[in-house]
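Example A, followed by Example B.
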Amino acid sequence: MKKSILTIAALFMWITFATAADPAYEAAMKKQITAMNSIPDLETSQQVTNGFMRISEAKKEEWLPLYYAAYNQIIAAFRFDVNKDQYFDQALELVKKAEEIAPDNSEITTLHGYAIMGKLSIDPASRGQEMSPQAMQLFGKAINLDRANPRAVTMMAQMELGMAQFFGSGPEKACGMGRMALDLYKKEEAKISEDYILPTWGKSQANEVASKCN
């Protein structure tokens, strides 16, 4: 009996250690996220992406390094003079790998839609009919997976705003979603600590959408 109790105790101890946070991983992620938030040029952007990929190779069970590598490629495509389709396609490949690790994840699904939206933005006239529904469906799925995810609501708001501008209709629906996203960001900010490594981006985009109603 005593042996059984010790065995069970050892098992629980192993589970505790196995599921405990990895300080080295979190420190490496925090360093890369900090670097990502102050990228001056394309070369630095690629270095940051490569850094996330190295972490991903070391921690194959984690989805966040792949997520941030994909996010960084999307932002680079919007910011810099690059082959935008190539960058968005690279982001989509990374997103799909992240989805294999964490299926039905609201953050990853949002990023998937963001990459599609990026490809759509290159040529809305010829790509809109195919890609607009894809992006809307992904953002809708992300919202349903986690209604407290401000990025999912923000991206849907941006799509709604783009659709309203394209068809010459009012921005009311988009603005309402933008304001909803800002409320969700306030709630999220209350949870953020110094070593927080989950996604927090998107508030400026929500503000931009909400400002269309002012």
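Example B, a separate protein, is given below in the same form.
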Amino acid sequence: MRRFSEWLRHRPFAVDCALAVSLFLIELTAVAAVQQPLVYVAMAVAVSTPIAWRRRYPVAAAWTALALGQVATLMVWASEEPRTLPPGQLGFVVMLYTLAVYTDRRTTLLFALGLAADIVVVRLVLGSDWTSTIFFVLLYALAYITAEFLGTRRAYVAEVSARLAVAESDRDRRAVEAVSAERTRIARELHDVVAHAVSVMIVQADGASYALRSDPDRAAAALANISATGRTALTELRRTVSLLRTDESSESHPEYGTAALAKIVELMRAAGLRVSIEQTGELDDLPPAVSLGVHRLVQESLTNVLRHGGERPRAVVAVRREPSAVTVSVINSSDDTGPAVDIHTDAAAPTTGGFGVIGMRERVAVLGGELRAGPLPDGRWRVAATLPLELKAALGVDQDHPDR
């Protein structure tokens, strides 16, 4: 049974076809009460068929069914049984529910007005009784309320899931940054240990070579110092290297570019942030250090806009590659009254663990770039950074391992 339900879940068109057949069979129960059964069956087929495409083309299917329903009403009026309800009334209930779930409220309300007109036509032209009229009005209301409830619930679940994904991504990013900072500290310690030990050993070796014949005792003492220094350095080296052992050495360094930026934007949009992005120039062949810097700046800025940008925040991102540098601009605003909130203030850092302007400026400074953050004349807030493309010659940055 579970496998069958999974099979149906991945084949919505088959489910809709089965629903259309079911409604058609229900309509056939009224064939015995009409004078022209073949005509009634043909109308029932015509009105039920659009239901099969209700999820693929909801708007077109709904209005097609309603138009065919009007034709059916005129055909019943012209027949010998003018008081018989035309087929398709139950199908209209399904179509109203479908529009409420899969489209916007404006489209749904327009279709509801069409249904109201259909009720009036059926009531005036065919002279249907009030019992059937009230029955279908209640069905329409129940379908709309049910769809609104389910749609709201789905939207809530989707937004919560998106925000959880943003929080998880932000948590992983901060964990990576913490590990990177720790690895940098260990690398500095490793450099200090090795450089100090090797320097001492070189000086002692030179002294021993000079005193080898003239002062053998002094040369022996120098060799002893070299041995002791080497053993001490080896112990420190083993301790430090043990902290660097990780499985990441077997994995390739992640690449960042237009696809990664598009993924960030998509993730933020799903979480409720209205963001637009403009990418100019070739961004997929940037040096890894620069590409990582662009990725982190956009990610951090959009995360801060989502957190502190008001009830309906929006952001505009522009990434432009120039001949010698890459410029990044993130501008935030809000539909709330007043200017945009300074979402990059460092005051929140102690409590929220935020990165802030200081952290972004440090990252940009490591890459030899420049960062500017502040309000614009119209009240919006902008973070702008310029990252040079030539790093090794100027700064000695390891472009193959930009996190180190």
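On Example B: The chain has 13 helices and five strands.
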